[in-house]
Amino acid sequence: MNFTRWSARLPGTQRRAAARSEHSASPAPLGDSSVPAARAEHLTGPAALASAVEDLPVREVLDRIPALVALVQGPDHRIAYVNDAYTAAFGARPTGEPAHEALPELDALGLLPLLDQVLRSAKPRTVKSRKAPDGRSYTFTCTPVDALGAPGDDSPGGGVLIFAADVTDHAEAAARLRASERSQRETAVTLQRSLLPQELEQPDDLRIAATYHPGGTEAAVGGDWYDVITLGGGRTALVIGDVMGRGVRAAAVMGQLRTAVRAYARLDLPPHEVLQLLDGLATEIDANQIATCAYAVHDPNEGRLVYASAGHLPILVRDENGVVHRAEEPTGPPLGTGGWLHASGSIPLGPGSTAVLYTDGLVERRGEDIDVGVAALEEALAGATGTPQVVCDRLVRSAGVTADHDDDVAVLVLQHPARTGPGGELFRNAALELLGGIEATPRARAFASGVLTSWRFGSELHDLGVLAASELVANSLQHGTPPMRLRLRRTDRRLIIEVTDGDDHLPRRRRAEPADEAGRGIAIVATIASGWGSRRTPGGGKAVWCEFALPAT
Fold this sequence. Notes:
Blueprint: H1 3-7, H2 13-25, H3 46-54, H4 58-64, E1 68-73, E2 78-82, H5 84-90, H6 99-102, H7 104-108, H8 112-121, E3 125-131, E4 137-145, E5 159-166, H9 168-195, E6 207-213, E7 223-232, E8 235-243, H10 248-265, H11 271-285, E9 291-299, E10 304-310, E11 316-318, E12 324-326, E13 331-332, E14 345-348, E15 353-358, H12 370-382, H13 388-398, E16 409-416, H14 421-424, E17 428-434, H15 440-454, H16 459-479, E18 484-490, E19 494-501, H17 521-528, E20 531-536, E21 542-549
């Protein structure tokens, strides 16, 4: 191979050669400051360094550099030169052979089409971090080289200089970093899923389903969560929230907030008071961490969803006629901001209705107002029918959520079924207004006995229910104020007895001494019932309830 012939044609060599010829052909002008010709061969400083660089043999430089260098020419990319580093990596390569035969490593890396592109476009191309057959990773730069042939030579004149830098260490470091990120993400996903309910509670009056989709592989896991909490007395609390931020920290904060919500829910407080307590706790957990949350309570006796929102997206409800309503107000700031008094609102949720609670990952898209996403979700909900799980899946699909979605998504769907026929017979209500006086307790006892008899309960459950109703009414007459009401409710799983009055002092269970004439009513109710509790009612006053589990049929 005539290396001198093509090396003299590399870009820049002709210009440097011409510069040297002009310099040597032009005699230096004589004068006081001129340098004698005899001393011009001993230049010093930058001029001497530039002269030394110009005189370096190209092949000697290419042979000694650690990078892989190869030169191919013509449309077949015939080998013109490979340096020592290339030979050490892939073995000797015969000159004059086409690349697709003599350079199989380039074919395995998919670089042969790139050589064609470089030759046609006369523009350099670079591919980063390709793993070669020798197990090492290289970044390849392919540069067009013009006029490889000598004057008068008929051989093809175009070629490509292939320069491959070994980036194995960088590639392995990047692979370790990606593996670490995957491991951290898997840890966060595992933590997130372990903190979510493993099995949703299923209230008597509602049908509920939920779904959670973590962000795609390129997105860190966030702090989305949901929960369903049965409060007793037929009431159900529903929660959905989103901790700002991503990763294990967000998931850990989410777990603390979810645990706190369950504890506060057991106090049976109004939704805005639960959020008020949660706001203070969020500030204590991390003053720099904020979260949005919606907390709602469903009472089948009222047919409404009472809720409070801390910066969360509005609850959507589709009524029995298919019309979708948006719970707009009131909405307070996110949890963790402090100094805000939250307020509760309500939205109808009667039989045949479906409600959806969701996080922003379902409706938020880059470059698009979030109201557009909420409106699209309303439209999808209007046409989504079926079981709660079917509705969940349809809403997620309609929003375009896939495995590589860039944000977490949590969706909670609840339905209040419209029960008719034999199934509807298992859900009954009966109420009696109590006017007070000594005749209230006998009237309540007679009313409860008649209702339980008509509901065809067995004698044991009948007697226990009458006793519980009598004790609750007597307690209300002694410690409460009018108006008073006795309510009996049955579902397919339990009998619920509730008494309301106008006094907001909540009863507590205490030990009565032998000489005490009072203080045994709540203790008796707690002993004979499956569960009991009390709460303050929104208009003032209180409700005291107990429930009995029905035998399985």
